[in-house]
């Protein structure tokens, strides 16, 4: 295809905005034909054009400079772009570069005043248009390079989900996850090669999807429907029965108070020390997708159990460190909050936890034994903070009648580092 009249000017450097040396151009499956005049000009005027091999092939009719396919690892690619700072450079991206795209990666190293960005329609926008779904009412998630288990917290009847997958096997993997979790009746729509000449649409229920092979470039629309045995995860307050555990678990009511004291904020990291079943770390991460956690557990069987719980309950990104504190805390990411669920009386654990916090960091410790209670009372007397006694009783059968069965009382200490 010949270049358009507004591309390939005679004096490239003279026309390129001096301050904005880096152009980031979104391109769809319709290739150069789908680009507007501004995007076409930026591609044609660039001395170097970076992109995936597919992107470079789509834009080939416009490229006048050197075409460079992304190297591996991608960190090297960003360094290559930065090495050309001040020269006319263009980076091609799929659809909207700032929606799970390279634009956000580049923006961490390049100021917005140095970039000229021309986005194309995102895959989510194209999918919503094809399905007639209102985007503000839809859950959108990228599973590119991420475990399908990230969908688990979103599985509520009536929810509509748009999920980017990693490859052609992704839809079948997600169909299996839905079926195994009891959401087999959910309706799946696979949209392949959106916006291009090879666009295709397939529909099936999750339980009837089978091992259908799809094009590598696909997006999955999910209309969630629950079967009779579906395990629907509540938005807050996971019951102990949803966890695999050996009794070493923070009960739902105590966990609710504990999370309130930990006071999670967007983007924060929690250390769950002596994690047991991992319930506090998992509940923390479920509060917002930006939250992360590290579960530290000395026993190998419990550490394995935490990993299974994290996968089953929608937090496959939970990091599990197998080892005893305080030694196991060395080298971990700096925490914003720490929960001590076990091992507080072990030598050096509490001191190491306090030292790991930056000013403003929070620590919450729960105690059921007299020894740990004594430690927390003494620490509260020394450092201050909130000391609370928590008691929970649940109704249970007593002979032929019903009575209160109390759980062991919990002493909780919560403190903010000044």
Structure, described:
This protein is an alpha/beta fold and 418 residues long. The protein is built from twelve helices and 19 strands. The strands form four sheets. The chain has a seven-stranded mixed β-sheet, sandwiched between helices. The protein has a five-stranded parallel β-sheet with strand order 3-2-4-1-5, covered by helices on one side. It has a five-stranded mixed β-sheet with strand order 6-7-10-8-9, with helices on one face. The longest helix has 14 residues, at 370-383. It is globular and about 80 Å long. The chain starts with 11 loop residues before the first helix and ends with a strand. Residues 1-14 have low confidence and may be disordered.
Layout of secondary structure:
Layout: H1 12-15, E1 22-27, H2 37-45, E2 48-51, H3 53-59, E3 66-69, H4 74-82, E4 89-94, H5 102-107, E5 115-118, H6 123-131, E6 139-142, E7 160-164, H7 170-180, E8 187-192, E9 200-205, E10 218-223, H8 252-262, E11 269-273, H9 279-286, E12 292-297, H10 300-312, E13 319-322, E14 337-340, H11 349-356, E15 362-367, H12 370-383, E16 386-390, E17 393-398, E18 401-406, E19 410-416
Parallel strand pairs: 1-4, 1-5, 2-3, 2-4, 6-7, 11-12, 11-14, 12-13, 14-15
Antiparallel strand pairs: 7-10, 8-9, 8-10, 15-19, 16-19, 17-18
């Amino acid at each position: 295809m010949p270049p358009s009249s507004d591309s390939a000017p005679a004096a490239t450097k003279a026309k390129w905005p001096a301050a904005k040396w880096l152009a980031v151009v979104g391109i769809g499956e319709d290739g150069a034909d789908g680009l507007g005049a501004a995007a076409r000009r930026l591609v044609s005027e660039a001395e170097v054009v970076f992109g995936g091999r597919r992107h470079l092939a789509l834009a080939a009719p416009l490229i006048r400079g050197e075409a460079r396919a992304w190297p591996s690892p991608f960190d090297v690619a960003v360094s290559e772009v930065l090495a050309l700072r001040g020269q006319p450079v263009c980076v091609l991206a799929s659809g909207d570069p700032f929606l799970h795209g390279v634009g956000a990666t580049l923006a961490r190293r390049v100021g917005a005043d140095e970039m000229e960005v021309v986005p194309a329609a995102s895959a989510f926008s194209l999918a919503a248009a094809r399905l007639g779904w209102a985007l503000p009412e839809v859950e959108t998630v990228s599973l590119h390079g991420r475990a399908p288990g990230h969908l688990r917290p979103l599985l509520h009847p009536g929810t509509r989900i748009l999920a980017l997958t990693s490859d052609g096997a992704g839809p079948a993997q997600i169909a299996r996850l839905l079926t195994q979790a009891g959401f087999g009746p959910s309706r799946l729509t696979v949209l392949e090669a959106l916006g291009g000449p090879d666009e295709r649409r397939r529909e099936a229920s999750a339980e009837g999807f089978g091992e259908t092979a799809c094009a590598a470039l696909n997006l999955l629309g999910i209309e969630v429907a629950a079967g009779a045995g579906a395990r629907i995860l509540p938005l807050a307050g996971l019951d102990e029965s949803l966890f695999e555990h050996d009794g070493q678990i923070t009960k739902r009511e105590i966990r609710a108070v504990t999370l309130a004291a930990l006071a999670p904020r967007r983007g924060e990291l929690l250390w769950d020390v002596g994690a047991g079943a991992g319930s506090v770390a998992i509940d923390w991460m479920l509060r917002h997708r930006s939250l992360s956690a590290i579960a530290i557990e000395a026993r190998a069987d419990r550490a394995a159990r935490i990993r299974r719980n994290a996968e089953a309950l929608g937090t496959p990104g939970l990091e599990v460190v197998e080892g005893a504190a305080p030694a196991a805390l060395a080298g971990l990411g700096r925490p914003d909050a720490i929960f001590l669920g076990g091992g507080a009386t072990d030598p050096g654990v509490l001191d190491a936890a306090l030292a790991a916090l930056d000013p403003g960091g929070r620590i919450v410790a729960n105690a059921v034994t007299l020894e740990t209670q004594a430690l927390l009372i003494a620490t509260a007397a020394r450092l201050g903070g909130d000391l609370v006694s928590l008691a929970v009783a649940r109704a249970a059968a007593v002979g032929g009648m019903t009575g209160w069965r109390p759980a062991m009382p919990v002493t909780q200490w919560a403190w903010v580092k000044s």
